Amino acid sequence: MSNELEHALAFGPSQGEGVAPSPSTPSPAGLPAGFLEELRQLYDDLGIELAKWGPVCALSGRCCRFHEFDHVLFLSEPEARFLASEAPAPLRPLDAGATCPWQDDRGRCQARQARPLGCRISFCDPSFQEAMPVVGEAFLKRLKALTMRYGLAWNYAPLHHQLRRLRDEGVVQLDLEEPRSPKPWVADHSAPSGLSA
Ligand code: SF4
């Protein structure tokens, strides 16, 4: 497994009614419409590939509680821009890397349609552990090639680093305060879930 993976969410045309997306039309996230179209296709293809393997996600939400599971979610800059601009408003403040601001009180992801590759490929299902790096590597390679083809910055970095920068750019509205109360969830150490790595 590569270090990137190891350390490692559709919207329609929004550039105006009746205006067909074109590869050169910038999106609210600063990404070309053509790139976004291919990124969505990549995510769809990953979903199809995963369906072949059938990994089970018990929806424990454990993989999104990064510090609790000694784990860092890395993602590329274009994916971070897609997530920040396409996901609903974050539910919680951005902390120093312990949790994801899109995980709700029940441990569920509220940014599923915009979640990055790292979230999509990660499963605790023991039967998928061998295949996960293979599938992950293949799609990470494809994502990188796509990013390069459009001349976009790769900048693979932890989620909270990406979000702080995008918050400063005004791409996403985020409260940067540390959570004031204890974690609103109850840790579940008995079941699997969906990456971060
Ligand atoms: S799946 Fe990814 S985007 Fe969704 S809550 Fe978990 S870490 Fe955040």
Automatic annotation (TrEMBL):
**Annotated stretches, region: Disordered:** 11-31
What is the official name of this protein in its record? YkgJ family cysteine cluster protein
User: What is the originating organism of this protein?
Assistant: Isosphaera pallida (strain ATCC 43644 / DSM 9630 / IS1B)
